[in-house]
């Protein structure tokens, strides 16, 4: 253990030297979508860093998630834009293609490759080059209201789609304005990720080797599952509106006990706690039910990373990588965790650095809400990171929303989704 720590300190020293030689004090800006409480934690970490790195100043700018990519592409993409930005991994190929993000220095890439899981490093890389330092990893699980389950006579979380549909039927009570399962609309990731998680738990995929496979039997069954939830009245699209901050009827109906089950990511624990107070103890999590073509409970996973603006001045880029190496390193936080790990865990978000996972091991294994997520993490399938990924996501969102509102059948939705995805991915690959 001592030898390992000594190696790490030597590595951090090399990173600091590699990014500081010949570098003068720099002014760095950090673009994020985090809320005020989380930004306050980031500011506290920055204060600690600045105290040890005289002259370097780092300012944080926060925008809503829905504005993050647009801001990054406009004001954030120029020489006067943000030096550092937190981004969703699906955006990376397009940002690299458009020369908006910088490849990591060799020392940073080596440290990241050593200290993060291979799949997470892959999501932060394009063409074999690392472009960002990963931070959070998110997976999906079934969230359910234990009180409503007990009232409906349901003994345990459903493990199969048949059990899932049976539970949704028992939990649906139109006289109480209560739905069995809550879908999401009006928010691309919120619409797509639960669908994708059910798809992979049914043995399917969205994209394989850069080509869409939404014409598979597993996908057919997943579209049909959505159709049955709607036509049977187990899910009401009028109760489903949400945005990336989870505000709106989707959250309100689950918080108030009007929705029995949902599929959602681990990061929304803080929103549930804030909305439910003491009633949060009614909520439990479980792995995604397995479909008829599936063999084990699975979820999709996706990650976030911090990247550096390729248009920023060279001295700003060097200072930015130096700061990010410190922020994500095990000497910046408490008890062997990184400062970034501390920030993520404050939101109930799973950190991805292996030493952070070890540092928070007791909490990750004992937190009853996170249990449904940690149980499925090893079997999760990464959400495909491809050129045109955001356009693909928004197109599939529109198709799934048309299915929710009864504008297309499951068969038409599947055919439309495959045709649209093929056109989008082929066009962006040119």
From TrEMBL:
One Pfam family here: SBP_bac_1
Alphabetical UniProt keywords: Periplasm, Signal
Signal peptide as annotated in the record: 1-25
The keyword Methyltransferase is assigned to this record: no
UniProt-listed CDD domains: PBP2_TMBP_like
Any one GO cellular component localisation term in the record: periplasmic space
Record-stated family: Belongs to the bacterial solute-binding protein 1 family.
Name of this protein: ABC transporter substrate-binding protein
The species this protein was found in: Devosia riboflavina
């Amino acid at each position: 253990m001592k030898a390992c720590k000594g190696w790490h300190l030597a590595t951090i020293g090399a990173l600091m030297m590699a990014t500081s030689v010949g570098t003068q004090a720099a002014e760095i800006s950090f673009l994020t979508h985090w809320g005020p409480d989380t930004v306050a934690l980031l500011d506290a970490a920055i204060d600690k860093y600045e105290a040890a790195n005289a002259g370097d100043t780092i300012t944080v700018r926060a925008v809503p998630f829905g504005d993050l990519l647009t801001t990054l592409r406009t004001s954030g993409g120029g020489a006067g834009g943000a030096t550092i930005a937190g981004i969703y991994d699906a955006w990376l190929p397009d940002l690299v293609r458009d020369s908006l993000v910088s490849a990591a220095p060799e020392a940073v890439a080596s440290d990241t490759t050593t200290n993060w899981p291979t799949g997470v490093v892959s999501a932060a890389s394009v063409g074999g080059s690392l472009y960002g330092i990963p931070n959070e990893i998110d997976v999906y699980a079934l969230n359910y209201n234990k009180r409503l389950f007990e009232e409906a006579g349901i003994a345990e979380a459903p493990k199969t789609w048949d059990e899932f549909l049976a539970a949704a039927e028992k939990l649906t009570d139109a006289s109480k304005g209560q739905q069995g399962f809550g879908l999401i609309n009006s928010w691309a990731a919120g619409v797509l990720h639960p669908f994708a998680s059910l798809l992979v738990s049914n043995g399917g995929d969205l994209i394989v080797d850069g080509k869409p496979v939404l014409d598979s039997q597993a996908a057919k069954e997943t579209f049909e599952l959505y159709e049955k939830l709607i036509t049977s009245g187990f899910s009401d699209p009028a109760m489903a509106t949400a945005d990336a901050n989870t505000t709106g009827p989707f959250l309100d109906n689950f918080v108030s006990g009007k929705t029995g089950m949902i599929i959602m990511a681990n990061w929304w624990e803080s929103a549930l706690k804030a909305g439910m107070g003491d009633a949060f103890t009614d909520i439990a999590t479980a792995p995604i039910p397995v479909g008829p073509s599936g063999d084990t409970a699975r979820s999709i996973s996706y990650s976030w990373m911090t990247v550096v603006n390729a248009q920023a001045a060279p001295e700003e880029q060097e200072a930015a990588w130096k700061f990010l190496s410190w922020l994500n390193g095990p000497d910046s936080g408490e008890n062997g965790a990184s400062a970034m790990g501390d920030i993520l865990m404050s939101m109930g978000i799973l950190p991805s650095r292996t030493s952070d996972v070890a540092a928070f091991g007791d909490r990750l294994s004992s937190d009853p809400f996170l249990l449904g997520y940690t149980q499925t993490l090893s079997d999760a399938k990464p959400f495909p990171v491809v050129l045109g990924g955001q356009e693909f996501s928004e197109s599939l969102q529109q198709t799934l929303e048309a299915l929710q509102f009864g504008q297309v059948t499951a068969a038409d939705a599947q055919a439309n989704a495959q045709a649209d995805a093929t056109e989008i991915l082929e066009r962006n690959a040119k």
